[in-house]
Amino acid sequence: MNTVQQAEVGLLKIIASASMVRPDNATKVFEQSTLSAEDFSSPALGQLWQTVGEFVSSGQAVDVLAIVERLKHSPEVRQAGGQRFIAETLMGVSPSRHIAPEYARIVSDASLRRRATSLLGTLHKWIKNEARALQEVLADGAEAWAGLIKRNVALKAADGDILAWTQQAEEALKGGKEWCQPTGIQALDAEIGGLQASVLTMVGALPGVGKSALLATIVYNLARSGVKVGFFSLEDERLWLTRRFLSLVSGVPLFALTTFRMSEQQHNSVYDVSDALHRLLKNVVIDDRQGLTPSEVSASAKDMILNHGCKVIIVDHLGEMKLERSERYDLDVADALAQLRDIAKRYKMPVVVASHVRRRQGLTVDDAPHLTDFANSSAPERMARVALGLSKVKDEKGGGVRVSVLKQTNGPSGAELGLRLVNHAAMVSNDETMEAGVPK
């Protein structure tokens, strides 16, 4: 078995093995390889690759007997050894998943060489036989060659990036694209510029501090400005957002809306604003299914973006995702955040993820958390480009939420701002602030 064949078999073993434990990882390896059946050195391996891909793309584990049944009428597979060929290729010790990109590169390069050799042979035959005009042969050859190398992404110098950046800056100055989505909360936008495109933003707090109040206010402001939001309500049922919005615009306390202990006047107030709120909520797409895995959240987010036109994705919250619960829980958290970060980068839009912070000794709801207080903090520290920590703050006029800018890769961090609570609606004020002093 030569090096190329070893890489081909290694890729198939990696995917088959990963699919038994983490089907999402198997799917990721398959998709990121960008290989097709035609890239493999033999028709039998190509058919096996295509069949394995059909299994993992549908979320199924790779079952050897099922694949044998599916390929039992293939003459190429029978000639290669049939059931024994399939079993030996898919079973046995698998290489590390981290080597898969290098294996995919080896297979892709070999495929390009084979296709290039075939193309040159065809061109030589056409030119030698003089069956077609030389210029026509060369033009067809150039087009075919361009099609071959288009599949291979080559490394290049970064000198062209400055031109791309200046074009983006010009587009932003002309108002052609909003590179930050304003949260509508004036003090917060002054510190972080809004929700930044292509950036994963983390919001962390102890329970009961005001995480939901901040997120609800951001969603309301975005929807009111015409920006469609994809919202994952993994902890609470979907109506909690609607109730807070109704309370905010009608003035009826949230408690009265939740318990239906409304006076006739309050009922009329809610009725009067319901039409306007109905129009606003068309800009909010909610997924409140419980126990979603990171892969399911990622798939739903793509649906929100591609089919519903969402421009911002918000996940409330990380702790409610159904992780794989492997021996390394921290790696499962990192994998979940990596998938959400990839959504932000691929579609060039903000992704906001709420998370609890851990109860270290001495930390209370009145203390500003540190970045290291985030649950499984190593992953948020690495992957978040903006991290906000929330805590409670009080003064003689009432209570509010202290927002600490714990990390901001593209700007200053360390700022503390106090946002006044709109108590009757359990949301925060867009313009009223308060002192955010941290207790000693």
Structure explained in plain terms:
- By secondary structure, the chain is of the alpha/beta class.
- The chain folds into 2 domains: 155 residues, DNAb Helicase, Chain A; 255 residues, Rossmann fold (3-Layer(aba) Sandwich), CATH 3.40.50.300.
- The chain has 17 helices and 11 strands.
- Strands 5-4-6-7-3-8-9-10-11 form a 9-stranded mixed sheet, sandwiched between helices.
- α1 runs antiparallel to α2, α7 runs antiparallel to α8 and α12 packs across α14.
Outline the biggest β-sheet.
9 strands, mixed
The secondary-structure element order is HHHHHHHHHEHEEHEHHHEHEHEHEEEE
If helices are DSSP runs of H or I spanning 4 or more residues, what is the number of helices? 17
Structural class: alpha/beta
The name of the CATH architecture of the largest domain is 3-Layer(aba) Sandwich
Outline, from the CA principal axes? Answer: elongated
Portion in strands: 15-25%
Total DSSP E strands: 11
Across the major sheet, the strand order is 5-4-6-7-3-8-9-10-11
CATH domain class name of the largest domain = Alpha Beta
Helix coverage percent = 40-55%
Radius of gyration, in Å, reads 28 Å
The residue ranges in which pLDDT falls below 50 over 5 or more consecutive positions are none
What count of domains describes the coordinates?
A: 2
